[in-house]
Amino acid sequence: MQYTPKSASEIAAMKLKPEGNYAFEIATAEDTVSKSSGKDMIKVILNVYDAEGRIFQVTDYLVPGTNYGDRKVFEFATSVGLAGKYASGAMTAEDVLGKSGWCKIKIGKAQRKKDGSGEFPPRNEVAWYLDKAPANSAAPVRREVPEHVATNTPPPGASVDDSEAPF
Questions:
Q1: What is the span of the domain harbouring residue 38?
Q2: Residue 135 lies inside a defined structural domain of this protein
Q3: CATH at 83
Q4: Does 163 map to a domain?
Q5: Cα(19)–Cα(2) distance, rounded to whole angstroms?
Q6: Which stretch of DSSP H or E encloses residue 92?
Q7: What single string gives the DSSP state of each residue in 23-86?
Q8: Cβ(133)–Cβ(24) under 8 Å?
Q9: Are residues 31 and 40 in contact, defined by beta-carbon separation less than 8 angstroms?
Q10: How high is the pLDDT of residue 163?
């Protein structure tokens, strides 16, 4: 058998979704502290819907305190319907969990590991958050976004009574 060998980065790139606008829903959210800056942040894992309705996950970090970070937190809050919460100056993981919106996904470059032992392969990343569903997009866009995702409401059959939540 003969073939052209590929690097781990090339193989990883084959699994990536194309850059474009996608609907998302917050699958998990965690209040934590940035290892690099020491600033409070919210780590979110997005369930992102591709053009066929399949879900892929993207991790993002909402870290205010820099021009880029402040802009990203503002765009995120606007996208998920939390502009009022943003204006209050405080947001928690609990506030964002289950919220939904639209984002622009990009393909991030492979990055060399700090210890020099190789590199992290390219991955899908959030380029920015959109304040509304895009009108037209050349990239795949989830056309049939579940109603609860499109309107930031609980999914059908979900209880909105959290009085018995274990936390």
A1: 9-149
A2: yes
A3: 2.40.50
A4: no
A5: 32
A6: none
A7: EEEEEEEEEEE-TTT--EEEEEEEEEE-TTS-EEEEEEEE--SSHHHHHHHHHHHHHTT-HHHH
A8: no
A9: yes
A10: 46
Give the DSSP H/E element, type plus range, for residue 93. Answer: helix 93-96
Q: Evaluate whether residue 140 is within a structural domain.
A: yes
Q: Is residue 1 part of a domain?
A: no
Domain count, the chain: 1
DSSP 18: P
Which residues are registered as beta bridge partners of 50?
none
Tokens of 57: 């996950």
Side chain identity at residue 19, one-letter code: E
Q: What is the pTM of this model?
A: 0.73
Write the pLDDT tens digit of every residue in 23-82: 999 999 999 999 888 999 999 999 999 888 889 999 999 999 999 999 999 999 999 999
CA 77 – CA 79 distance, rounded (Å): 5
What does the block give as tokens for 58?
């993207």
**Which helix (H) or strand (E) is 94 found in, with range?**
helix 93-96
